[in-house]
Amino acid sequence: MDALPKAAKQSVGRRVSLETLIAGVLTVAGFTLVRARAYRILKVVNDVLFYVTLPGLIFFTIVDLEGIDEFLAMVFISLIHMCVMFVFTYLTSRAFLKDALMRLTIATSLTINNAIFLAMPLSTLIYGYATPVLPYSIAFNVYLTPYLVFLTFKVPGNSNNLSKALKPLPHIIAFIASLSLKLTAYDLNLGLDHVLKLLSYMNYAGFLIIGGQLAKLKIDYLRSFMRSVLIASVIKYVVSPTAAVLLYMSLTLSKHISGIYFNGLILQSLMPPAITTVVIAETYKLDVKFTTLLLTVLTPISIIVSIAVGYLIV
């Protein structure tokens, strides 16, 4: 697939700038809502994101997936990368985090990347199109459902409470229903682009949640976790891309896969925590402040590093 012409790239750049402005405005709005003690509004936003937007993204993304062997192979590699990074981060964090909930928080943040809302526009800017990062975005939605079930039983107090234990139910239903449709109707063409765009734009409301959590952060909190943030940075920008390269090389020995997907895998391995991690942390009672701290610090670093690395491997 040919790269976009210069004019198209400039158009994408303007769109990214506009999206960044919107994200900034929403973040400030969330910050203001907390200062005004309008917690109920943020609670409603969080519930809509978790119970409506996320299940919708899982369902419509999987239903809209084209059954291409090469593409599905990269989805599988992406899933393995997520699992490897979770296990590595969780086990490694034992050396610097004593609290099990904090270890689960950092593992969640470094595993669930911003695979859609940041990776896709960056891929378009660097490579000219979003195709290289699409497999990881599909894997993100596939990974999310069983991971939410895992959190239900892993985090104390969730599995003992019926309402908390049933939290992943909409995601499970969406996952099973979408897979069933794909298995029974391979050529199903529902024209879902507009639905997926709507759900993607809805997810921008997550910046309200981020802004609300930023209002609760204090300088002392950043200082107390500076070491953890530095280690998280090493895991994100050294271990994660290294694992991606090794997985790609070992799992594609017997099958040729286009180099554009390798580029996309590396780009995704450098992505910061997704906005979704804040929603998940809020819902499952992980450390929301630490999640917000990681997202806030790693996002600008990821943008700079991914653009530099992306242009180097073009």
How does this model look, in words?
The chain has 314 residues and is mainly alpha-helical. It has a single domain, classed as Na+/H+ antiporter like fold, CATH 1.20.1530. The chain has helices spanning 6-35, 39-63, 69-92, 100-111, 119-127, 134-154, 162-165, 169-184, 193-202, 206-214, 219-224, 226-251, 259-269, 275-284, 288-313.
Quickly describe the structure.
The protein is mainly α and 314 residues long. The chain is 76% helix and 0% strand. The two termini are 14 Å apart.
Which helices and strands occur, and which strands form pairs?
Elements: H1 6-35, H2 39-63, H3 69-92, H4 100-111, H5 119-127, H6 134-154, H7 162-165, H8 169-184, H9 193-202, H10 206-214, H11 219-224, H12 226-251, H13 259-269, H14 275-284, H15 288-313
Relevant terms:
Na+/H+ antiporter like fold, 314 residues, 15 helices
Radius of gyration using CA atoms only? 19 Å
- What is the count of distinct domains? 1
| Uncertain stretches | none
The CATH topology corresponds to Na+/H+ antiporter like fold
Give average pLDDT, whole number: 81
**Span between termini:** 14 Å
Number of helices: 15
Please state roughly what percent of the residues sit in beta strands, choosing from under 5%, 5-15%, 15-25%, 25-35%, 35-45% or over 45%.
under 5%
Shape: globular
CATH architecture: Up-down Bundle
Report the top-level CATH class. Answer: Mainly Alpha
Multimerization status? single chain
Counting helices, strands and paired strands, the structural category is mainly alpha
Percent helix range:
over 70%
Q: Encode the helix/strand succession as letters.
A: HHHHHHHHHHHHHHH
How many β strands by DSSP?
A: 0
| Sheet of most strands | none
